[in-house]
Design goal:
By secondary structure, the protein is α/β, with parallel strands linked by helices. Helix content is 45%, strand content 18%. Helix 7 links the parallel strand 6 and strand 7. Helix 2 crosses helix 3. The two termini are 45 Å apart.
Length: 357
Amino acid sequence: MPPVRRPAPNAADDGSADKLGNRLLFASRRFSPIRSIFVRLLLAVGAIVITTLLVYFERDCYADRGVTGTASLLDSLYYATVSLSTTGYGDIVPVCDSSRAANILIITPLRFLFLIVLVGTTIEVLTQRTRHEWRSNRWRKHVENHTIIVGFGVKGRSAARTIIDSGVPADNIVVVTSDHGAAEEAARLGYVGVVGDARREEVLKDAEISRAARIVIAIDEDDASVLVTLTARRLAPDATIVVAARESVNAEILRQSGANIVIPTAESAGHLMGLSLISPVAGEIMEDLLDATRGLNISERDITREELGVSPARLDASGQLVLAVLRSGRVFRFDEQLDVLQHGDRLVVIQADGTRT
């Protein structure tokens, strides 16, 4: 059995993940910079227009260089701009109680709004950071029995979609990747993203791996998969770990590293292609089972109250084909004799899409 190679340097090893802060990414609405600037300009113009109209309608209560009631629309616009952007020059001043009250109750809040728009970038950054820290702390407090997917390439995306199709909420899936763009895509899909190299212990701890129930390692390098599996098993001794192996010769090393299940991707694809050539119908059925969007689905579930004491063979009449029964840690396959279902049994079944369970 060939030894596992030392991991080759990649983008995750040059410190880029640390520069990104190994931070959590959550699903959120994102606005383009042009849209953000446009919204701020609208707010600023709106504040100026409201102030201008307010001053103009009460122009009899404003004095321009000591002369009352002569303020024009241009004078009102001038007063609005200098009052909102500065403390005013004092050449146009309110002289009535109503105009002074309007300055206190309306123009002063508009002045604050105008200033907030001017320094909106700094405030937005602080607000986003505060919101992110609040969401991170809240997520860490409540997350439990979640699923971690290491790698978000073709295999990682497919695994996430399959898990979602089984009924798991999107925010209960954590994607760990050193690619910041892939982490942002995962966040847009509703998952929680963690940016960083999964071979590093602190990155997996950011994903709260100690409380994870399932871990999928779907990266393209078997040597890196071994290191991630070793670290993951040490940090999450009770989690179920599924690893994709490019070469079947490394499957046993991955199992020894702590993987519960190893999927040799190249060999599996080759077997499916060979089966499709020899028996096209069988290959089509296998493809159907692997694609959750098509007619047949394979799933594992608890037995229902109505199925208690029923023979597995009788379930075929309800449109479900029982492949295996899990009882007390033992797997009874479809070709093994099992009289009736008992409390605590779990079923692995093939069923048509939409069949009630």
